[in-house]
Amino acid sequence: MGGKEKGRGEGISRRRFLTFTLGGTGAFLASVALYPMVRFSADPSLKREEERASFVDVGPVDQFDETYKLVRFFVKRKDGWHHPEKGVERTAWVRRSATGEILALSPVCKHLNCTVKWQGNPRYKNEFYCPCHGGRYDENGVNIPGTPPAAPLDRYETKVENGRLYLGNIVPRRKG
Ligand code: FES
Questions:
Q1: How confident is the model over 106-137, as pLDDT tens digits?
Q2: Quick one: which atom of ligand 1 is closest to the CA of 114?
Q3: Which residues form the Rieske domain (predicted)?
Q4: Do the Cβ atoms of 159 and 141 come closer than 8 Å?
C-alpha cells in the first residue's frame, strides 16, 4: 500500500515537472519571437537607428559617372549565427547619369545566383553578362528575353548626403 502511494506521488511530481518544463520552454520561445516587436514598439528611435544603420557610405558621389563601377562595402548584419567583425560583404554595380540619377544594381544573377559582370562578354556591348548560363541584362539591368534570367537585377536603395553616396537595402524589381 505504501508502495502504491509512493507511485502516485511520483506521478504527480512527474506531471508537475513536465508542466513546468513545457511551460517554461513555451514562454522562452514566445519571448524570443516577441522581443523585436516589443523592443521597437517600446522605443521607435531604435527602429530609426536600425534604418539609418542599413545605409552604408560608399564614397564621394562624384567618383561615379555613366560607366558602371563595381563597389565593395560591408554591412553590419548578422549572417545567421555568424556575426563577422567587419560585417557582411556586399557588392554593387553603380553608375550616375548625366542628370545625376544613381542606379546601384546587385550583381547577383536572377537565374541561379551567379555573379554578373558589366560588359562581361565582348560579344554583347553595354550589357551585363552572366557566365554561368549566358544570362544577359541591358544597361538598366533589365533581363533580355530569350536568355535564362526571368527578372531584372535587384537594385539597392540609394541616397546622397553631403556629397557622399549611401547604399541601403536590396529591393527586388518587377519581372520584365
Ligand atoms: S545563373 Fe546567371 S544565367 Fe544562370
A1: 999 999 999 999 999 999 999 999 999 999 99
A2: 1
A3: 96-167
A4: no
